[in-house]
Amino acid sequence: MMNSLELFERAKRTLVGGVNSPVRSWRGVGGTPLFFQRGEGPFLRSVDGGRYTDYVCSWGPLILGHAHPEVVEAVCAAARESTSFGAPCPKEVELAEEVRRVFPSMELVRFVSSGTEAVMTALRLARGFTGREIVLKFDGCYHGHSDGMLVSAGSGALTLGKPDSGGVPVSTASTTLVVPYNDLERTSEAFGRFGDRIAAVIVEPWAGNMGLVPPIPANGSEEGFLEGLRRLTSAHGALLIFDEVITGFRVPEGGVQQRTDVTPDLTCLGKIIGGGLPVGALGGRREICEHLAPLGPVYQAGTLSGNPLAMASGLAVLRVLRREGVYDTLEERAKQLAEGMAGAAAKAGIPLSVSRFGSVLGFFFAPELPRNLAEVKATDAAKYPPFFHGMLERGHMFAPSPFEAAFVSLAHTEEVVERTIAAAADVFSAL
Ligand SMILES: *Cc1c(COP(=O)(O)O)cnc(C)c1O
Q1: pLDDT per residue over 287-328, tens digit each?
Q2: Which of 10, 78, 137, 356 is the most buried (most CB within 10 A)?
Q3: Interval between CA 245 and ligand 1 midpoint (Å)
Q4: Which residue ranges in the chain fall short of pLDDT 70?
């Protein structure tokens, strides 16, 4: 068989950049990406024969680890009954009921095939429902790759956004406002200026795409960031959208919304609910969702939406997650990793701060947790590539890019995590 180096050379001849998603090219850390042959619980096996403890977990979906037997069995059984109906099937009803049981704010649900699509549809729905055009997002939150979300802050304070990717029309970007995360004051100013034109505020209620940044109260304020967003959106007739694609099903209560008692109007899910198959979902208040086709004028469709394999996979994952003690184990293991890494770094005199929500973690080379993208960028990210490669040499795979979250799965045992911490101690002392 070809090794990773040969495969990458071959891949580059037909696949753009040799990959199907840019972060996989390892440009963020240097070197040649590994190609993988199989996953076994917490481990990845490369085509070169290496075995790596996996802390990427396919960027979040694999909360049970690789090839969990019940998931594999459910997908195989579903495949034998057809890979796609293009028509209603029972499993999509079951998964929708399970989603609503855990996320009561999602009174009606629509399944799509990716998180990107879930967000894209939620935004269209918010615009269709409110009859307004502007969407406010926060710098450093990732909501998939639809045009309106690939936008960065405009030049002046509180101006509409500008394209952050080639091919995004200026006119589209100019319907997006970008404000720093955790900044209620700027959000409030934005409402002061554009209030009656803002259809929705979309937020990752724990920001999991710039490491992992928690929501916090503003300096000297009692009110939390998410509570403030709820207050402002309600006061101005705008919708609040929680993008819980990463945080959804991360804790027993479901996501951030039940933990904080802030109820969004719409919620986007993805990743875990497909258990490694392509799924996204959006849902929320009934009167809003009833604006979606076929009930209402806001159009959305999908050939493979509610796909039986993906539904079976999601159902199998959620079934395991419901079992007694599963979240306690996930919590314990993630806590062990968080504390172990922080301790190992402290011993080596490396400033490292660690954030955690359930089984997702953020590591920052900084003495304190950053609160927004500017502070994330001000951390010592130059330490990340040597950390990444040091860990890889020792058989532990973290994200091939700084500022990405780390994930722990149910398959990661105490011993597995302990070995990772020991390797990290080694790597930190060499940094
Ligand atoms: C991954 C992610 C998305 C996009 O999901 P895809 O399935 O990759 O399209 C959207 N929002 C958040 C918060 C994500 O982490």
Answers
A1: 999 999 999 999 999 999 999 999 999 999 999 999 999 999
A2: 137
A3: 6
A4: none
Distance of CA 23 from the midpoint of ligand 1 (Å): 13
Query: Do 277 and 173 belong together in one domain?
Result: yes
Question: Which residues approach ligand 1 with their CB closer than 6 A?
Answer: 114-116, 119, 142-144, 204, 208-209, 243, 245-246, 270, 280
Tokens matching residue 21: 């998603």
**Angle at alpha carbon of residue 280, lines to 174 and 60, rounded to 5°:** 100
Alpha carbon distance 113, 280 (integer Å): 5
Among residues 321, 356, 376, the one where a domain terminates is: 321
Structure tokens at 134: 């502007």
Residue ID of nearest Cα to ligand 1 atom 10: 143
Q: Specify the number of domains making up the chain.
A: 2
Quote the CA–CA distance of 184 and 242 in Å, as a whole number.
Answer: 16
Could you tell me if 27 and 130 lie in one domain? no
Q: Is the pTM above the cut of 0.85? A: yes
Tokens of 16: 């753009």
* Active centre residues (catalytic): 142, 243, 271
Which pLDDT score, from 0 to 100, does residue 44 have? 98
CATH number of the domain residue 145 falls in = 3.40.640.10
The residues, ordered by sequence, that sit 6+ positions from 1 with a Cβ below 8 Å of its Cβ are 47
Domain that residue 56 falls in: 4-67+324-430
Non-local (6+) Cβ contacts of 219 within 8 A are none
